[in-house]
Structure formats: C-alpha cells, structure tokens
Amino acid sequence: MFTPAELLEINTLLTPGRKIVIITHYNPDGDAVGSSLGLKHYLHAKGIEAEVVVPNDFPKFLKWMPDAKKNIVAEYKRKVAFDLINEAEVIFCLDFNSPSRIGILGDWLVNARAKKILIDHHQQPEQFDFVYSDTVIPATCQMIYHFIEAMNDEHLVNKDIAECLYTGIMTDTGGFRFRSTSADTHRIIANLIEKGADPSVITSNTWDTNTVSRLHLLALILGRIEVVNDGKVAVLYLTRNELKEYGFQKGDTEGFVNYGLSIVGVRMAAFFMEDLYEDFIKISFRSKDDVDVNQFSRKYFSGGGHINAAGGKSNEPLLDTIETFKKRLEGENL
User: Fold this and answer.
1) CA 5, 7, 10 angle in degrees (round to 5)?
2) What pLDDT does residue 334 have?
3) Is the dihedral of CA 136, 164, 310, 94 positive or negative?
C-alpha cells in the first residue's frame, strides 16, 4: 500500500475540478475494466469526475458494467484520448506495470505532465510518481478496494463500485479457484455483496454469454487438444482461417486455455492463436502450483504476467511456434 505520507499527497490531488484520467492495458480484461470503472465510481462518490481511457476495445461480456460503454476507446477516438491524457493533472495507471503494455497510450503517458499513480499486481513494475504494487494480491480490483479502505472511504462503496470490483476479482481469480485467492479476497467479496453486488447476476452477465461462434471454436480446439511432456502440458491452438470461418469476435476465446489445465495430471497449458490481422501468434499460458509461466514466457516468448497466468507472442508461423514451445519444455522442470 502507499505510505501514509503518499496517501496524504494523493488525497490533496483528488479534488473536484481536477482533470483526472484512468487508463489500463491493451486488450482490457475483466480486472482491467472492473478496476478502472470501480475507481471511477469511487471518485464520483467523492464528488470527483474522471474519464476512463482504454487502448483498444474490450469484449461485449464486460460492457454490462455501469458506465462501461462510456469508456474512451483510443483506437476509435484517438484525438479525444490523446487530449485527455495530454491535459490530465492526475493519471491512474491500473493493472499494468509498464507503458509498453498500453499500446498507443504508452508514449502519451510517458510525455504527460500529470502525476502518475500506479496500482498493479504484475511483477517488476517500472517507475511512476506513486506506486502501489503487490504481486501476491490476485486482482487489481482487490487493490482498489484496499486503496479505498486506506483512504478511509469504505463507507462510500456503493452498488456500482461493488459490481465492478466483484467482476474483476471473480474473473482474475478464475471464479475464486486460483491459488492467489486468499481469505482477505473472500472478506472483500463478502463486503461487496453487502454493498449490492449480486453474485448470480454478475456471473450470468459475465460468463453466461456464449455465442454460437464461440462454442464452435471451443469444440474445434477441444477436438484436437494435445497433451505432451509426459502428460504434464496441454497444447491448444486456433488458426486465422478458423477464426474467420466461425465469425470470431473479441472475447470469444476467453478462458479457452483453462480447459487444458483442467485435464488430470496437466500442470501447464498453452493456447496459441494467430492474430486476426497481423502476422504474429498470441500465446496464453496457465499453470498449477509452483510452475512459473511468468518466467517461462519472459525467457522464451517476450511476455510475462503472473506465476500461474501469463501471456506471450511469437513472430514464427503457428505450427513452428508450437514446435519451438515443445523444444523449450525440454529444459524446464515441470
């Protein structure tokens, strides 16, 4: 958490009339969108307005959250996003550890005159004016709740805040299944429910949103899933042509990698997908226990994330990337 002195200084920055912007990472997920909107609604409860700017669009299954459709998407409103960041006096940086993780917003953030406040749970954060970094906490949304507590404003948490923060914690913990989920996480979830978050409604709005195209893609990858490395590693993949054939939409492959990890004996799963428009392979890694996919991805695939959940990329063709991945496993202790 921020030091008491830092909290006092941040409090002096958070006054009505200041130009405040909240930004998050490229390809925003539930934790990114939930933490950004949760913080926005918290500031609004204090009588302070803020704008949320995201680098690119995010899945439809996250757009039910209060004010989600008001987010400024930089890929569609480039000038609006640039002006907001350039003129901001305070910028909250949520759920990313480096300007390199926020796409076209990166250079704008670096050059902005605003005070920059980082709240994030990824490893190896870079320098910001104020840094609250904790890699043990499972979701940035949980950190936003801790921040609200530290500001002695827990009484301001309302239904809008609760719904957004609950969504981010739920999605980033895999439905409270991941090892990083703690007793403190459940304490906060209980508080959010008391403040108006309805678990059944949030779960339905977020996860019960399958399209026919998504189910076709899921059936396709499950039909050819491969288990390697003596049954310890599952490999899944999708080609660009397959994405086009089944009418892929952003968010359709969310959670696919977890099906590989659900196989008995598997300790690591990797999902490889050709980008729909550019010539690179997007990779999602998941693992169990002490299998560190963060370090694996950093070492071999220009990525990173958390010990049990990370992403990476490759500029090799899809099948070559998968073969390279299998070879890299030979030197790893799984």
Assistant:
1) 110
2) 78
3) negative
User: How many angstroms separate the CA atoms of 141 and 165, rounded?
Assistant: 5
Listed residue (111, 138, 101, 125) closest to 23, CA to CA: 101
**Alpha-carbon distances, residue 170 vs 25, 117, 173, 283 (angstroms):** 18, 24, 5, 22
- In tens, the pLDDT along 13-61 reads 999 999 999 999 999 999 999 999 999 999 999 999 999 999 999 999 9
Cα–Cα separations (whole angstroms), residue 48 to 19, 21, 36, 83, 241: 9, 11, 14, 19, 47
Token duo for residue 332: 């790893």
Residue that is written with structure tokens 């799963």 in the block: 269
Closest CA to 123 of 314, 310, 328: 310
Give 136-146 pLDDT, tens digit per residue: 999 999 999 99
Q: Are 261 and 269 in contact (CB under 8 A)?
A: yes
The identity of residue 104, as a single letter, is I
Considering only CA atoms, which of 139, 119, 92, 103 is closest in space to residue 309? 139
Q: How far is CA 86 from CA 43, 77, 227, in A?
A: 20, 14, 49
CB 68 within 8 A of CB 32: no
Helix, strand or coil, per DSSP, at residue 45: helix
